[in-house]
Every structure is written in C-alpha cells, then in structure tokens.
Write the structure tokens for this entry.
Amino acid sequence: MRNLSKLKLCFLAGTLEHGGAERQLFYILQALYALGASVRVLSLDQGEFWEKRIHALGVPVTCVGAQRSKWKRLFRVLKELRKDTPDILQSQHFYVNAYVSLVAKVVRATGIGALRNNGHSEMLDSGRLGGWLNMHLPGLIAANSRSAIEYALGQGIPASRLYFLPNVVDAERFKPAATASDTPVTLLAVGRIVKQKRFDRFVSLIARLRDLRLDVRGVIVGPSGRNEDLRAELETQARSLGLFPELLRFQDSVSDMRPVYHASNLCVLTSDFEGTPNVLLEAMASGLPVLGTRVGGVPEIVRHGHTGFLLEPADLDGLTAIAAELVKSIQLRREIGTRARLFVEQNHALQRLPSFLSRLYEVALPPGYHSSAEALPATST
C-alpha cells in the first residue's frame, strides 16, 4: 500500500455547497490529512457550507472562480499550481475535469477526473463540447458507481482509465437511534430541490398512503437554492392534496442530519437518475430501511428485499404497495434496517477510505514514482 504521507495533493471543486459529493470530499481530505499527506483545495465557489469545515481540518481553501470566464478560471488555477505544484491534481466534480486535465499537463502533475452521477446526466449538463472534453481529457477518472463506469465505457473510455472509488459514510457518527417513535410513521426524502429528485412522486406517495388510512407523515429535507419555483410547485401540489403543512413539511438543509434520521422510520428515494446517493448510506447507517428507484448506483448499495426495496422510477403503484407494507410492519422495518446498517459497516465504512485512496493513487502514479516531498534532500545538522 502506497505511503500517502509522502504525497502532495490538490483538489479542484466546482462548489463546496451542502451536497453528497462535497461531503465525500470532506471525508477524503480528513483521511489524507490524518495520514500526513499535504492537501489543499481550490474551489470555483466561495463561502459555501463545507468551506469552514475544511478550513477547520487544517486544509487551506482558495477560491479560483471569481471570474466567470472559463479561460480566466483556467489561468487562475494554473497560477495557483505553479506556486506549489502537487503530485496529484484531482477533480471532485465532473464539470471541472477539463480544467484539471489541462492544468495537470502544463505543471506536469498527475490529473484525476471525477464521475459523481450516472455519467449521462453529467454529459448533458456540460453541453456537447464540454461533456466530451470532461469525459475524454482525463487520463484517469474516479467514479463512485459502477453504472457510471459502464456509461463511460460506452463512450469509448478504456477500462484502464476508470477507477471505482466507493462512497463512504462515518458509521460511528451515523448510528441507529437509541429509542425511536413508531407512530406516526415518518417517511423521509432528502436532497436538493431539483427535478432529478422527483419529489413530486414523494408527495403523491404520502397522499396515497393517507388514502389507505395509514398514519404517516412526510418530510422533505433539502435546499431549494435557485429552484424556489420548483419548491413552490411542490408545496402547491401538497396543499392541493390536503397534505401541507400538517402531513407533509419541508425543511431546509441542516448541518447535523442525525436527529432527522432518528426522527424518521423510512427513507425514500424517488429520483430519475443518481450516482451513489450519500443520503442512502447515511440513512442505512442510521438503521433506516430504504425504498428507492432502481437507478444509477443505487442497486449497488440497496439489495432488493435485503437492505431495502427497489422499483422502477415510474412504478408509483409498486412504490405505494411496498411503502404500505413497511408502514404496517414494525418488525419488517427493523429487520431491513439492521441488515442495511451491517451492509454499510462491511462495505462503506469511513475506515475503508485510506485503502480505497491508496489503490487509486497506486493506479494513477507511474511505477517507482517519488513525490516532490520524497525527493527533497535531507537537511544536514
């Protein structure tokens, strides 16, 4: 296993907002810093949720996105790295892969790109040219789901340039509640208020369960950001169904999600597409059963009938039937939740991250590579 304490790494993030990709970056920085590696972060955004927390680790964060021009941003990143060239420049978001690849070539660092979703949606969001560049320029891409890797292979990316870097969760921090209320049964949905998450399905699910005379409540937790109109649409939908605000409430993101998981009985994912949702790992670590859509990397962590249940995105009838079964059976919820917790401990615990990263950097760096830190001459006494 490579000695990570000898590496100098710089991460380029598109944003440090309150999201799953950013939490994974925090975990990575925390692990590398604890192992003695030299790490820093460049971000296109400033003053976002994770910035203070990363600073608190002792990891410097520099904003390089003050200019809207992509070329000016590129030259700002280049300027920063010429001051202190890392061994590895790593992307945390797909849409900055091109920056990472181009700058890494100029400063002669090893560049690593990122795939944080299902690949297809990221290509579309980046535009035709941007999507192609962000997918094809990196010499190596770290993806957090095997479905994203399959998509990249379909785009002509060789398997040798793809690495599976699983999401992890702090299973010591996210634990089952000591005591949990079983009535009313609270269904939880978490994520940014964006169309991808299809919270309208979640609203409809709560209404259907209510119509079955089941004692349920729904909670949607997540920031709306620039999508205030979408949140207003969801509130209107919930109000028209007689749910809002008594049976369904909206809550902005909170810094500590543990009380939210502890106050819930079932985590529901209704997305049209995903990578490997961080929220599902946190919910599972917290002992919650998961009911989700069979998209992206979700089937890799939710084993149907064992650690949760999966249905096709449009199957609202099936979603309702399984949700009703879970609402009615405390025993089923507990059995599924217990198995979900065990799965996370065995496969996605934070303690496994150093070995994941060590293998990634072993693949990324050429054989016999010595970092700049290792190459420094010994100081005479």
